[in-house]
Specification:
The complex is a heterodimer. Chain A has five helices and five strands, in the order E-H-E-H-E-H-E-H-E-H. Chain A has one domain: Response regulator (Rossmann fold, 3-Layer(aba) Sandwich). In chain A, helix 2 packs parallel to helix 3. In chain A, strand 4, helix 4 and strand 5 form a beta-alpha-beta unit. Chain A is an alpha/beta fold. Chain A is 40% helix and 18% strand. Chain A starts with a strand and ends with a helix. Chain A has a five-stranded parallel β-sheet, sandwiched between helices. The model of chain A has no long low-confidence stretch (mean pLDDT 96). Chain B has a single domain, classed as 3-Layer(aba) Sandwich (Chemotaxis protein chec). In chain B, 40% of the residues lie in helices and 29% in strands. Chain B has five helices and eight strands, in the order αββαββααββββα. In chain B, strands 1, 2, 3, 4, 5, 6, 7 and 8 form an eight-stranded antiparallel β-sheet that branches. In chain B, a hairpin with a 3-residue loop joins strand 3 and strand 4. Classes of the chains: A alpha/beta, B alpha+beta. Chains A and B meet through helix 1 and helix 4 of A and helix 1 of B.
Chain lengths: 121, 204
């Protein structure tokens, strides 16, 4: 069974770019979420063992998603994919439980390196 | 040419391209001021020039006085970047720039020119990288100083009837500072813009 993956990003272009960077065999198990609320719904539906999470989203941002996961004791493997490349954004995301932080514009090689580092590939 | 030539897909792609440029701008500003910069979600829309005052009022508030810096960009994508700074929020950023006392008018303008140059340069560089098209830009110049917001843009002197408006906002978490950036592009810039966005989307 491929890993259930959710890509949470308000940009269609960005979600497509991220999806294209993932292994071909994962494609059927990828869910798209356009904001943090949808990302949490996907998680609760068992579709987000791996959550590729943008930070800057409408309705509910990536930080709020991670806060909710932590408050409710939920365990998703979160990799933040964000254009907010400030060191403090990275620190804040990691402190909230993100396992890794990948900068936009997305480098597929870097994302795959992170997935390999954590034994997901 | 009609104003709806930027499809929802084009708008989405442009929003993400601007988002990436904005992230780089936020990082550059954060490094300059040694503080965390909150970034808005970029907003893309076509507006009629006549309606631009309403947009400015929504952004900065009807009562606020602002200073504004402009930079033109060109050649393939041609337009104007305008950075607005609400006047009453100037003190916080002056402190971050190392001024103990309230800066005088000239110092204040230098601060604004520096910040605008960083924001515009980073956003446009981000766009350039994502779209793979070269952009040049003029040095920043003072467009307006401490004026009511409706006096920033003299709509009578602008030849365009519709403009593509790209709006991004930066604010500093711990300080009362906010700035707004508008990228205004004329209708004629929509054709090359659509081409470069198509090229980006075709790669998917």
């Amino acid at each position: 069974m491929p890993l259930p993956v959710t890509i949470a990003d308000d940009s269609t272009l960005s979600r497509k770019l991220i999806a294209r960077s993932l292994p071909e065999e994962w494609k059927p198990s990828i869910t798209h979420a356009t904001n943090g609320r949808e990302a949490l719904e996907a998680y609760r539906a068992g579709k987000a063992d791996l959550l590729l999470l943008d930070l800057n989203m409408p309705e509910m941002d990536g930080y709020q998603v991670m806060e909710t996961l932590r408050t409710e004791g939920l365990h998703a493997f979160v990799i933040v994919v964000s254009a907010d490349i400030q060191p403090r954004a990275q620190e804040r995301a990691l402190a909230l439980g993100a396992m890794a932080f990948v900068n936009k514009p997305l480098d597929a090689f870097q994302l795959n390196g992170v997935l390999k580092d954590f034994g997901l590939l | 040419m009609t104003v709806d030539q930027l499809s929802p897909e084009h708008s989405d792609a442009l929003q993400e391209v601007v988002n990436i440029g904005m992230g780089q701008a936020g990082d550059a500003l954060a490094r300059l001021l040694d503080t965390f910069v909150s970034l808005s979600i970029p907003r893309i829309r076509m507006v009629e020039l006549d309606g631009i005052m309403d947009v400015l009022h929504q952004m900065v508030g009807r009562e606020d006085r602002v200073s504004a810096i402009r930079q033109a960009f060109f050649p393939r994508l041609r337009g104007e970047a305008i950075v607005l700074f609400p006047e009453h929020r100037m003190q916080g950023v002056a402190m971050l720039m190392g001024y103990d006392l309230a800066p005088d008018t000239q110092q204040q303008q230098e601060i604004l020119l520096d910040i605008a140059n960083i924001l515009v340069g980073s956003v446009l560089n981000g766009i350039t990288q994502s779209l793979g098209t070269d952009l040049g830009f003029s040095p920043p110049s003072l467009l307006a100083s401490d004026v009511p917001v409706e006096r920033v843009i003299d709509t009578g002197s602008v030849e365009w009837r519709h403009v593509l408006l790209v709006e991004v906002n930066f604010s500093l978490d711990e300080h009362s500072f906010r700035s707004h950036m508008l990228l205004l592009m004329a209708e004629e810039a929509l054709v090359p813009l659509r081409e470069v966005l198509d090229h980006l989307m075709e790669a998917l």
